[in-house]
Specification:
The complex is a heterodimer. By secondary structure, chain A is an all-alpha fold. Chain A is 73% helix and 2% strand. Chain A has one domain: ABC transporter involved in vitamin B12 uptake, BtuC (Orthogonal Bundle). Chain A has a two-stranded antiparallel ribbon. In chain A, helix 1 packs across helix 9. Helices cover 71% and strands 0% of the residues of chain B. The longest helix of chain B is centred in the first third of the chain and has 30 residues. Chain B has a domain of 253 residues: ABC transporter involved in vitamin B12 uptake, BtuC (Orthogonal Bundle), CATH 1.10.3470. Classes of the chains: A mainly alpha, B mainly alpha.
């Protein structure tokens, strides 16, 4: 049981970090479908720089920088050049898959995976028993994740900046008339989202396996989008959803190992997506009955 | 007579594709690949090498069918990004029937399997359609989720109930349909498949441009309020548009099964659904444009599989190119600065309207 929870937590942490990025963008009125691509780019940058410099810290910093730049370009696309948010987001994800797989072959001359000589240090070593086993092998970044989640909540829900971000997301017209620079807030939110994706990617690649493999995000970025929606954009709710998805992932891993199935594992893995469809339907039905404005209206239609 | 409008649209799409090629070209050059080699390799893989044209057509067919479906949904104002899931759902439904109809005469069997594919895709698309029409649930989210559900369903089908008994333990593959039901050999292209795609294209063209339904779709897509005033039942229209859109993707799924595959593999043709969306946009949501774009991207897809054989360029190089086109294709030709001058005109995305942005910018 402890082992199972440990696997679940390890699977959840990268998703949770990316989810926080998604939450920040969501608050600013952007449903970010490029998270998958940013996660991959972050993971690749972290591994590549770690290999070249030998320093994991430099790798993580480089990943954050790269993703900040990519997010800035993405902001220019969707806010300045008015590209469609969803198509450009999906495009960013496809570009991320293509670019990282391409660079993997172009730079490291390999199709499968490259290994870094070192990874993120873990605080509690492996093979602990008892309650400590729950945290065995978790990286420093994993330990920092609850702090980052709480920090995101604090900034978004308890500061003027957070209020501004929400205003931009919910009613940009009013925010603009109140003197908020809507474009700058969106830009900041996207860059912050990119940086969180870099952390998620670094955690994915450097926490346990210390390597980058082709298309290694395997839909985790989209799972993060799902977690954001499922948590209705609330940082803590989304984090809980991410944790739940991580545990569902662990169920998947577990049931591949065991032979007695109550339910095919695919149907367990479907649960997050089905629940999201149900949740979105219920909340939109309530919204439309109240006559509330549709979410993400401005960037898509203004 | 080709209108000025059409020329401008085509120029805009061509410009976007060229820009994507340019950016990708810079990346290839920096990483040490010779641009000439890449482009000659692409040309060979898509056109001039033996069998290359067949391979290009083989990929153009599913891409075209998906793009046609996307065109219907987008024109009606619905952002159906669920083509991949609808393709899988159609393919799974076709497989279920395909395994079951073994004993029937060939023509009836084929018709039944193709119909099953269409229905499977339509049903898969109907879920987000109904949720959108009756509960206002955002179709981007629901169709995206349906994609992942379909992928998992395919994995289950391919590893569980319909697993290939002869297959290796590693790859998840389904049982095969009987040989006499197949529409083509492993090349994936035959006269029957091309005819099927042509009929579907003409049908969609007639439907969108020559029928009342097409008119309603256009009005509703451009201006839902006006459509309501003209007595268009928005809910019916949404459900119909989603169904047709899914039906075409499902048809593509049935053809993938009866044509090149003969069986289904977990995660087959992974990016086809999304590239179909890109094709619809590059084609300017017009039938003629979509056909040309589908042939172009079909060629690129064929080249993706050919490039690693002749050059040392990995196939992911062209994934990158497709991604870049997707990133750039919806940029409105009018920069936001111009919009601010016009106090943010009511619309700007090239998707929301049939009127090309280029033309607006030409006005003083």
């Amino acid at each position: 049981m402890i082992d199972f929870l440990n696997i679940g937590i390890q699977a959840a942490i990268p998703i949770m970090l990316v989810t926080m990025g998604g939450v920040i963008a969501y608050r600013a009125g952007i449903l970010h479908l490029g998270l998958e691509g940013l996660m991959l780019i972050g993971a690749f940058a972290a591994v590549a720089v770690t290999i070249r410099t030998g320093s994991v810290a430099l790798g993580v910093v480089a990943a954050m920088l790269v993703n900040a730049v990519v997010s800035l370009l993405f902001w220019i696309l969707v806010d300045v050049l008015r590209a469609d948010l969803y198509i450009a987001g999906l495009g960013l994800s496809l570009t991320g898959v293509g670019l990282t797989s391409f660079l993997l072959e172009a730079i490291f001359k390999t199709q499968g995976a490259v290994h870094a000589q070192s990874g993120l240090p873990s605080v509690v070593g492996g093979n602990r028993h008892g309650l400590l086993g729950l945290f065995a092998g978790l990286s420093v970044l994993a330990w920092a994740t609850p702090v980052l989640v709480f920090g995101t909540w604090l900034v978004l829900r308890r500061t003027r900046l957070g209020l501004r971000v929400s205003a931009v997301g919910e009613y940009p017209f009013a925010a603009r008339s109140a003197g908020v620079n809507v474009g700058a807030v969106r830009c900041g939110a996207l860059v912050a989202a990119g940086i969180f994706c870099a952390l998620g990617g670094a955690e994915l690649a450097l926490a346990a396996i210390n390597s980058f493999g082709e298309d290694m995000a395997q839909g985790r970025g989209y799972l993060a989008v799902t977690a954001v929606l499922f948590g209705a954009g609330h940082p803590l709710g989304a984090a809980v959803a991410a944790l739940f998805f991580g545990l569902a992932d662990a169920v998947g891993i577990e049931s591949q190992l065991s032979t007695h199935h109550i339910l095919p594992v695919q149907f367990i893995l479907m649960v997050p997506y089905v629940l999201t469809i149900v949740a979105i339907s219920i909340s939109s039905a309530i919204r439309s009955r109240r006559g509330a404005p549709a979410v993400f209206a401005e960037l898509r239609e203004s | 007579m080709i209108s000025r409008d059409t020329v401008l649209r085509a120029a805009r799409s061509a410009l976007v594709v060229l820009a994507a090629f340019a950016i990708a070209g810079v990346i290839y050059q920096i990483t040490g690949y010779s641009l000439g080699q890449v482009f000659s390799g692409t040309w060979e893989g898509a056109v001039s090498a033996p069998g290359a044209l067949d391979s290009s057509l083989r990929w153009a067919v599913p891409l075209l069918l998906i793009a046609l479906g996307v065109t219907i949904a987008f024109r009606a104002g619905f952002f159906n990004v669920g083509a991949q899931g609808q393709l899988y759902a159609g393919a799974i439904a076709a497989l279920l029937v395909g395994v079951w109809v073994k004993g029937l005469p060939t023509p009836i069997g084929i018709v039944l399997v193709v119909l099953a594919g269409c229905i499977g895709g339509a049903i898969w698309s109907l879920v987000p359609g109904v949720l959108r029409a009756y509960l206002q649930a955002d179709e981007v989210i629901t169709t995206l989720m349906m994609n992942f559900i379909a992928l998992l369903l395919l994995q289950w089908v391919a590893s569980g109930p319909l697993k290939d008994p002869a297959g290796s333990g590693q790859a998840d593959q389904t049982r095969s349909v009987a040989d006499h039901l197949r529409l083509s050999d492993a090349t994936g292209i035959s006269l029957r498949i091309v005819l099927l795609a042509a009929v579907a294209t003409v049908a969609v063209g007639v439907l969108l441009n020559r029928t009342q339904f097409g008119l309603r779709v256009r009005v509703a897509g451009r201006n839902p309020t006006m459509a309501r005033w003209q007595g268009v039942d928005a809910r019916h229209l949404a459900v119909q548009a989603f169904m047709l859109s899914g039906l075409l993707a499902g048809l593509a799924g049935a053809i993938e099964l009866l044509g090149p595959g003969g069986q289904l593999t977990y995660g087959f043709s992974p990016d086809v659904g999304f590239i179909g969306i890109v094709i619809a946009l590059v084609g300017g949501l017009r039938i003629g444009g979509v056909v040309i774009a589908a042939l172009f991207f079909g060629g690129l897809h064929a080249a993706i599989l050919y490039l690693p054989i002749v050059t040392n360029l990995p196939s992911s190089a062209l994934d990158l190119l497709n991604g870049l086109v997707a990133l750039l294709i919806t940029i409105s030709a009018v920069p936001a600065i111009w919009h601010r001058r016009r106090r943010r005109a009511a619309e700007s995305s090239a998707l929301n309207t049939d009127v090309p942005r280029v033309e607006v910018s030409a006005a003083p």
